[in-house]
Structures are given as structure tokens and as C-alpha cells.
Amino acid sequence: MLEKTFYKYRTDSVFTEQIITSGQIYLSTAEGLNDPFECSLQDLNRKWFEKKIIELKQAAVFGFVIEARRAIKDNLYFFGLTPAETVQMLEDIREKDTDKAFSCRQMIMKAHTGYAPAEPDRLFVQLNQQLLDVGIFSMSANPGHQLMWAHYGGEHTGLCLGFKNVIESKLSNPDHFLPVIYSDQLPEMQEGFNVEMAFSMNENGVLYTSSYKIAFADKTFQKAITTKPTCWQYEEEWRYVEPYPGLFTWPGPLSGITFGLKCRSERRHYYIDLVETHIPYPVIFFEMRKKHGTNELERVPFEISASKPKVSALPQKKKCSSRQAKDVCR
Predict the structure, then answer these.
(1) Strand partners, 258
(2) pTM here?
(3) So where are the chain's domains?
């Protein structure tokens, strides 16, 4: 992606001030956003679901058998079984169907580790919660849309923060910064989805599979967290996303601030002072004005074109309570 600036419309509030002074933003969950269909998938087809569970179990059994054969070859114990017992276990598994072979694997691993390995059946049951747990920071490609100023910029009394997608920033990472897809159809799970396995270690240092989940970078998962109805298309939205909500450092450097048409002069100068006191590089300032002879607005340079930094380093990250963190995103 070419270097561009993306925008966050904000009301004039102490919480907006904190974004500038703390160098942090708050990523909300889907429940905190304004579309009731946020992070939704079509209901899973039962036959498709069962087919995928079988495939995951087959893969788990296959990996289990490969490791068992390696242990036999090297004359090593395998989950507490002697090489001879491992040979017999493989003979038993060979006669079983996928479900029974998988259950056998689970019992052997639990007997040795003390913990039951993760069940693939839970993967799709937990998917909705995984979607609802994603942290989202909504931005726009357009800093001058009248409806955006009315809805999110305090009815033109607020401001619009511009963040640049410089190299190695989260805004330049396609797994973390995604364009919103405008569609009146909910996305559905596709073939070839990516699954992540988490491993834990028991007190004896033995690894076991503790959970399965859809990979954060999975294309269908990403569609689910970025699809909105076409009625929202005017927003030209992009989303900075993380697997969980909370406070995060800016996803790219704050490069510019645009003041709303009705943002008061004293507040504009107050924000300029905040920027100069907390940001160690020049930030460009703009304002919205009525375009002569039309009912349109235009974005033009402000009378003070850029900040004059009074500091040499960005603000240090501060620890906040969960309540304080949520307030930052208001």
C-alpha cells in the first residue's frame, strides 16, 4: 500500500485529549460499535460443520501416529507407553474409525499429561465469541465528509485525527489494517480456513494441545470482522484490528489534525498546544470551511500550518484501569 493517511473523527472531549497526551487509542469490541450485524457470519451448515470436524480429527490422529512411529523407531517412551505398548496401541487405532481413534488419542494424552487435549468440536462453538472479542478501531479514508462530521465529529464542533501508514506500522500490516467490505450478505465460512492450535505444558514439561481457534489472519474471519451493510458505504471505513480489545499505541504516527467547521477558536489553539507539548515532530493542521457559492465543505490549511514541538520524545505508555481505557474511545 502506498503511504497514505487515515482518519478518526472525534468529539471535542477530554477523552480525545487523552489520545494525544497518552499516545494510545482504545480498540472496542463489536458490541461497542453502531451496526447490529458487526462481526457476524451466516449460520454454519451442519453437514459442512461435521465434515470439517472430521478433517481436524483426522489431522490430529495422523500427527499422533507419525510421532508414535518415530518414538518406536528411536526406542523411546511415547506418552508413558513403552515401545511395545506403542506398537499395540497403533494396531488398536488402525481398526477404529476416526471418532474412536481420536478418542483413543485423547485418553492416552490425558493419562500422561493430566489434561484433556482440546476438542475440535469446540472450534466453531467458540467462533462467535472469538469474533466478539476482536478489538476494533474504526477509521475513514475521507477527512471531509459532512455526514461523518455530523455523526462522529460532534456535529462539526470536534476534530479529525490523521494517522499515517508508514512502513512497519500497524496501518501498513494487512493482517491488522483492513478495508471494510460493504455487502448486504453476511460472509460464510469457506473451504481452506486456517486453524491455530495453542499448546500448554504440564508440570512435567509435556506439551499438549490446549485449544483450537480460527486464525486471526484467516480470510473468512477477516471478512466477518470487516463486513457491513451497504447503507454504511459513505463512511469509506478501514479498521485497525487486534485479537482482543483494550489500549494500544497509535497504529501509525499522528500526522495531522483537521478542525471541524464549528470547533471554537480557543479549543483549536488548546489542541495545538497539546500537540506541541506531547508530540516531538511537526503535525500539520487543517480546518473545514464552507465552499463559496455551494452547500459543500472543503478542507484547507489552518492559519497555523504545523506544530512546533516542545518535546523530544513521544508520551510514555501509562497503565490505566479498564474504566479509563474504555473512556479513551468515547
Answers:
(1) 160, 286
(2) 0.74
(3) 5-39+134-180+226-328, 46-126+201-215
